[in-house]
Amino acid sequence: SLDSLNKQLDQIKGLEKENEKQKKQINDLNAENGKQLSQINSLKDENNKQMEQIKNLEKENEGHINEMNVLREEIKQHLNQIDNFKDENKKQAQEIKDLKEENEKQKKSLDSLNKQFDQLKGLEKENEKQKKQINDLNAENGKQLNQINSLKDENYKQAKQMDDLKEEKKEQNKQ
């Protein structure tokens, strides 16, 4: 019947659409697959490079091991030198001890000299004070001398006045 045919046609159309979708999915998956293959090839190349680097590093490592052995030998020599330096150091420590003792003696002498120097400074200060006192006394003395001279002048004037008065009296007595 026609209805049945139409239903079948619709089903066929539906299946064709489904088929188209699946074809598109397959194409997308193929494209994705192509990308992944490309990535895999890149990773293989990267892997080969890294393997090459590992080989080179292993060679370098052998070189480093040889260098380390040379350095070990040098370290042994340095340790021997250090032992020699320690012996030398002991001798120098004794010399330093002797010098310190000598230094202590000299310090004591210096302390004694410093005390004497301090005493001298004290005497100098005392001396300065006395000089100032002398200067003050001299200044005071100068003032007193001036006063004495003034008094002498005054005295001289008064004596002259008295002489003049005596002369006047004599003159008056004569008359």
Largest sheet geometry = none
Summarize the amount of helix as a percent range.
Answer: over 70%
Oligomeric status: single chain
How widely separated are the two ends? 205 Å
Average predicted local confidence, pLDDT: 96
Shape: elongated
Overall structural class, as computed from helix and strand content, comes to mainly alpha
Low-confidence stretches at least 5 residues in length (pLDDT < 50)?
Answer: none
Rg over CA atoms, rounded to whole Å, is 64 Å
How many beta-strand segments?
Answer: 0
Question: Helix and strand succession?
Answer: H
Provide a count of the helices: 1
Beta strand %: under 5%
Q: What does this molecule look like?
A:
It is a single chain. The chain has one helix and no strands. The protein has 175 residues and is mainly alpha-helical. The longest helix is centred in the middle third of the chain and has 173 residues. The protein is elongated, with a radius of gyration of 64 Å. The relative contact order is 0.02. This is Viral A-type inclusion protein.
Write the layout of secondary structure elements.
Elements: H1 2-174
At a glance:
Residues 27-42, 135-150 have a biased composition (Polar residues). The chain is mainly α and 175 residues long.
What are its keywords?
single chain, mainly alpha, 1 helix, 0% strand, elongated, Viral A-type inclusion protein
